[in-house]
Design goal:
Length: 639
């Protein structure tokens, strides 16, 4: 009965979404305050019911209920509990239920917490959110039912893909989906504001926390997903420009541009139409990502292998939502006032340049991701676009973006003088020049892009902390700290990426037990290869003795075998030290020799440390703005 209760909850939630949409339309048309209040209540109840449906699905997985097809296809009685729980969303149907659950809960949060928007605009926003939810409820109920029964009931399940049997599954998809849904809320705010012709600073201030929250979770999700793929796949890379990796990067790029644009609108009443367009583009990117992962047109370790009919359903939703929003934008753009003007040399001008460069990178990634699909589908031509294209096309634009990021916080709002800006940039420019000179002297063969990336990262790091100069640090607002730390995080990540590209050393060898090989500054000795057992796998485990200077430690990479489903995986063993990582993988046997893959990756950990700093900066900024709004509201109440 649990499955039937879950399916019933989905139907009830879908009905409530339809009711919410109808009440919102009626309320916007008539302005009835009673109906407006009803919209809030329905949104809250809908969020609670869909959350209950997800909880019931998780319970089915925990109980390994083999009368449910999704459990049979993606679970097994011998699987550890954490993977039974996370396995509930480690598949197409479950992940879509998680998606729509976060959507419903976010709508409930907007209904219960949002008090800054004009009531009619808020109701229109909730109506837009209901329309999005209704489409995905239809997708689940008619195309991807997570509660479908299995007859006859098998003796046990097929198990979860071993590549997904990792704690990353419990963290990566939920954070990424919260980011996607945060973008959908921003999209709904934009649609609501266009419907009521209420595009202005108040609307932007209400939308900004949702954009910032989405951006934080997208940053965390992408950072965690990058590290998960790095250590789990055993390929030694942190980013492969895989189409599904790009599908998560594109919304982040659009959300980053939107975050800067909505800040200009909220604080300076500028970029009104541009902010609305970016909200539509950001949601478009999240919908395109959803389509790519679930359409069956991609071959990727990240993609869900599903039938094309489901992809066509999502494509229809994408056309409906994005096409409708663009049509509304075209109809309303003449009514959206331009807002306050500003000079080219101003912080607003710097943010516009930031947005344009981000948009160019987004366009490059979008074209590089979709072109092979279009070429294969329309012309039957197989085209492969990989890292060389993305690095060469997007790399120079990213370097220009770093320069703009460095200058932006040091430029005054509205109007500034070029000479004054250059004077404030003396220390960042000096840091970049010194780093460039040192790199050309000591590592001239590292490559043009890595050298420029490291030099600009040094300049950006100095520029990031420059806004704190000559200030009482105890009085610096939290959101200013957030900006400083987030920009510093970008510099740290870029430094890690450039270092990994420029200085990594790879060693592929076949060695006998007792033989020693070099991997960067390390001496690695294969001491033994022996069997090992886990909760639902068996393995061959190498014991590697690693020496550097007077330090000795041991690593144990494994080649694991999973019986359900039958799969062999490479489990890397990684040593993290102050100046980088030693990455080791055990390969197949070749007579009395064993294949070893060894990488020395100087400063590679800066990539993920920088991502964590970016997310921390976003969190501080969000906390600071929420805290300021709270105290302002209290002062207004008691005034």
């Amino acid at each position: 009965m649990i499955a039937e209760a879950g399916l019933a909850a989905l139907w009830i939630a879908a009905a409530l979404a339809a009711l919410q949409l109808m009440l919102a339309a009626l309320s916007v048309a008539r302005g009835d305050p009673d109906v407006m209040r009803a919209v809030r209540s329905v949104a809250a109840v809908q969020g609670a019911i869909v959350l209950g449906a997800l909880a019931l699905l998780i319970l089915l997985f925990v109980n390994t209920d083999l009368s449910v097809k999704l459990v049979v296809d993606n679970s097994h009685s011998a699987k550890p509990l954490i993977y039974k729980i996370a396995g509930a969303w480690g598949n197409h149907e479950g992940s879509m239920l998680l998606w729509v659950t976060i959507l419903g809960v976010a709508g409930a949060a907007v209904a219960l917490l949002e008090r800054r928007l004009e009531e009619r605009t808020l109701v229109a926003t909730l109506g837009s959110q209901a329309a999005i939810a209704l489409g995905f409820y239809a997708f689940l109920l008619f195309s991807s039912n997570p509660f479908a029964r299995q007859f006859p009931v098998p003796a046990d399940g097929n198990g979860l893909n071993p590549l997904l049997q990792d704690p990353g599954l419990a963290f990566h998809p939920p954070t990424l989906y919260i980011g996607y849904v945060g973008i959908s809320v921003a999209f709904s705010f934009a649609v609501g504001a266009m419907l009521t012709r209420d595009v202005g600073p108040a609307f932007a201030r209400a939308m900004r926390p949702w954009v910032l929250g989405a951006w934080i979770f997208l940053t965390l999700g992408i950072t965690a997903g990058s590290y998960w793929a790095y250590y789990e796949l055993g390929w030694g890379g942190w980013w492969f420009w895989d189409p599904v990796e790009n599908a998560s990067l594109m919304p982040w790029l659009a959300a980053t541009a939107l975050l800067h644009s909505v800040t200009v609108l909220a604080t300076r009443d500028g970029l009104r139409a541009w902010t609305i367009m970016l909200a539509v583009v950001a949601f478009s990117m999240s919908m395109i990502g959803t389509f790519l992962v679930r359409s069956g047109i991609l071959t990727s370790v990240h993609a869900f292998a599903v039938d094309p009919e489901r992809g066509a359903f999502i494509l229809a939703l994408l056309a409906l939502y994005i096409g409708g929003a663009l049509a509304l934008f075209g109809a309303r753009v003449a009514t959206i006032r331009e807002g306050q003007g500003f000079d080219v040399i101003s912080r607003e001008g710097g943010l516009v340049a930031n947005n344009l460069l981000l948009s160019v990178i987004l366009g490059i990634v979008l074209i590089g991701t979709l072109y092979p699909i279009v070429a294969a589908g329309l012309f039957g031509v197989q085209v492969s676009i990989g890292p060389p294209f993305f690095n060469k096309a997007a790399g120079p634009i990213a370097l220009a973006l770093m320069a703009v990021m460095a200058a932006g916080p040091l430029i005054r709002w509205r109007r500034d003088q070029g000479g004054a800006v250059l004077a404030r940039m003396v220390y960042p420019i000096a840091a970049a020049a010194l780093a460039l000179a040192a790199l050309l002297l000591l590592a001239s063969d590292a490559g043009v892009l890595p050298i420029l990336g490291l030099a600009l990262a040094a300049g950006l790091a100095v520029a990031s902390v420059a806004p704190l100069g000559k200030r009482n640090l105890g009085r610096v607002p939290l959101f200013t700290w957030g900006m400083v730390i987030a920009h510093l995080g970008i510099a740290v990540s870029i430094a890690g990426m450039a270092s990994e590209t420029a200085f990594s050393q790879q060693t592929l060898v076949a060695v006998r037990v007792g033989e020693t090989v070099r991997a960067g500054p390390y001496r690695v000795t294969l001491q033994s290869v022996s069997p090992a057992l886990g909760p639902n796998w068996s393995a061959l485990e190498a014991r590697l003795k690693v020496e550097r200077g007077g330090t000795t430690f041991y690593l144990a990479p494994q080649s694991r075998f999973f019986a359900t489903p039958a799969t062999v995986t490479s489990e890397s063993a990684i040593a993290t030290v102050a100046d980088g990582q030693l990455y080791t993988v055990l390969g197949a046997a070749d007579g009395d020799r064993w294949q070893l893959r060894l990488w020395w990756k100087p400063f590679v950990t800066l990539i993920w440390a920088g991502g964590a700093l970016v997310a921390l900066g976003g969190a501080l900024s969000l906390l600071g703005r929420v805290r300021r709004d709270y105290f302002r509201s209290r002062s207004t109440v008691y005034a």
